[in-house]
Design a protein that fits this description.
The protein is of the alpha+beta class. The chain is built from 10 helices and 8 strands. The strands form 3 sheets. Strands 5-6-8-7 form a 4-stranded mixed sheet, covered by helices on one side. Helix 6 runs antiparallel to helix 10 and helix 8 runs antiparallel to helix 10.
Length: 294
Amino acid sequence: MKRKIIKQSDSYTITLPIKWIREHGIDETKEVDLEEEREELIIKTKTTPRKEGELTIDSTNDKFIQYLLNNAYRNGYDLLKINFQKANIAKSIEKQLDLLMGWQITEKTDKKIIIESLTEPRYDKFDVLMRRTFFIIKNDLVLIRDFLEGKEQNLEEIKKNAAEAIRIDNFCRRCIFRKVVEKEKTHFYWHFIATITWIHRSIYYLSLELKKNLEDNKAAELINRIINSFNNLYEGFFEKNLNKIAVVFDITKEIQQNKSKIFKSGKNDLVNYHLIEISRLINLSCSDAIGINT
């Protein structure tokens, strides 16, 4: 795309493509950023146009409705009009909004709900919220360890944290859509955040299993190795230290290679299954962590 340079009294100007202007909601009140890179002049904007959409929901399945709303939220919709015929669909929609930061109902009838983004956090909170997810996981892994070691612990806290982890996951992926991360690393961030969230989901499912009658097993030793691996992932990712991420590979690889021995060592296979799955997901997240930090 070429543009003619227009001479002014003491400077030069060029026109910007109208399609790009409209896509980003730019007008005379906005500013753009200019970056010089050798022979290139790069024009950037953080402005994102208001995005509106409409969908019709016929299914009363709560999980299906949750996925619809989650993905509309992650895709950056600021206003969503939802049409439906069955009254109980409205209740399901309202329940799912607890997991979507900032989305609130601004209009409701018997056949329609309009949701708008009113109170969501600032997008510059992306890094802070990612750290919060890591903190929740570290905290809940310690709760699991203490429980396995016979200490008095209330695992109900993990259930509360599970909802928060999903809210953060949805918002962080919404931030990615809003271009808060480098374009070249979007896919790394998207998969990394999803995997980290699934680590906590596995912790949550483990906590449900532990609430049942737990037979004697040696899971406490395994959870300590998992905590060590996750701490190295946390430090390696936020400190941009690839050596610590390499340690994660070493620990989780050893756990995966000894799965059969781990299952034989205890009586409660479901507990060990969840612990091994947590280890596998920690290992999986390393690839994206390296992609983000290189």
